[in-house]
Amino acid sequence: MDSIINHIKYKFSVEPFDFLNLKFFGGEPILRPKIIVELVSNIKALAVEYGFKLHVHFTTNGTIIPESLLQVLQECDSSFQITIDGNQSSHDSTRIRKVTGKENGTYHIILNNISRICAQLEQTSVIVRINFSNETLNGLNSLIDDLDFCDRKKVSISLHKVWQVDSNSIDKSLLFNFISYANSRRFLVNFMILKNHKGCICYADRYNQAVINYDGKVYKCTARDFNDDNSEGSLCEEGFIDWRTDRLMDRMSIRITENCKKCKLLPSCPGICSQNRLEKKGQTLCALDDDFTEEDYIIHNFNYKILKTKIETS
Question: What is the number of alpha carbons within 13 Å of residue 242 lying toward its C-beta?
Fold first, then answer.
């Protein structure tokens, strides 16, 4: 924690910045709330001292939201990504916690915590991440009904296929029917494969981005194991990162491929995955090659932008 504070001071002394995006990722980061509260408090003080804006984000399972965390985030720009695995029946069959020897589902605990976050934090947003398969898509509309208490300006839905499931096996009619139902209830739905990110590159490709593990090892991509082979460097006590320069240069030198340049959707493409490019020796992997069409992409983003405008102006 001290090294992270020193890192922020060091970065600001070398190249002053206007904005710091501080994200907590796990595992489950909120299992250590005292550390988080202390770290956020110290960085909030730095933001005042140095004059930069601070945004704090949590990727969490949503079962532990202590009052101390909500208090330290008061008057702070914040956001949460909270995972739910289907409707109550589906979620509670896999996401359980043990209390006095009995297995209890966490579905209503998470919904209650979403309500607390939105009620107590004025400057916040919550992304409800739904990890889906064909099985969880069935009956998923009831989750939208259970989320009806949510402020649509604060809470949105994000769909992510369970990674062990083959993309070709997903029933597209189930998927798009759910998106249509959620839209009809005025919920914005991000679907990672089809979502137009308005030219935003992947966080891992940002020059000033670093994923700092508990042991001081540094990574760029959070979608890979945090082991020595994937490490991009290490954080020193003084606050600077000793990068593996060759690996960093390989990532930063990736350029748009010729077949991407010929694609008519390039101006609105959410972008290639540099991690895949590095691992596949430069091969381009396009989400629209097999599973989804250009028409799917265009219609999804068109409907998303219409609803977004309605919600923002309501």
Answer: 8
**pTM score:** 0.91
* Token pair 């769909």: residue: 159
**Two structure tokens written together for 125:** 């947003």
| 218-256 pLDDT, tens digit each | 999 998 999 999 999 999 999 999 999 988 888 888 777
Mode of pairing for the β-strands spanning 233-235 and 241-243: antiparallel
Pairwise CA distance, residues 294 & 288, whole Å: 7
Inter-residue contact 194 to 225 (CB < 8 Å): no
Specify the DSSP class assigned to residue 147: T
Residue among 40, 38, 120, 129 nearest 80 (CA): 129
Bridge partners, 131 (sequence order): 160
Exposure string of 113-129, with b = 16+ CB inside 10 Å and e = fewer, is: bbeebbeebeebbbbbb
Q: 107: how many CB neighbours lie within 10 A of its CB?
A: 21
Residue with tokens 């977004």: 308
Q: CA 269, CA 201: separation in Å to the nearest integer?
A: 10
Q: Helices (DSSP H) in the chain: which residue ranges? A: 2-14, 33-50, 67-72, 88-94, 107-120, 134-137, 141-146, 172-184, 245-252, 258-261, 274-279, 294-313
Q: Per-residue pLDDT tens for 251-273?
A: 888 777 777 888 887 777 766 77
- The pair of three-digit structure tokens given for residue 80, joined into one six-digit string: 């949460």
Q: What is the helix (H) or strand (E) element at residue 80, kind and residue range?
A: strand 77-84
Largest CA distance in the chain: 61
Q: In DSSP terms, which residues pair with 59 in a beta bridge?
A: 81
Tokens of 228: 């020595």
Q: Would you tell me how many other CB atoms lie within 10 Å of the CB of residue 155?
A: 22
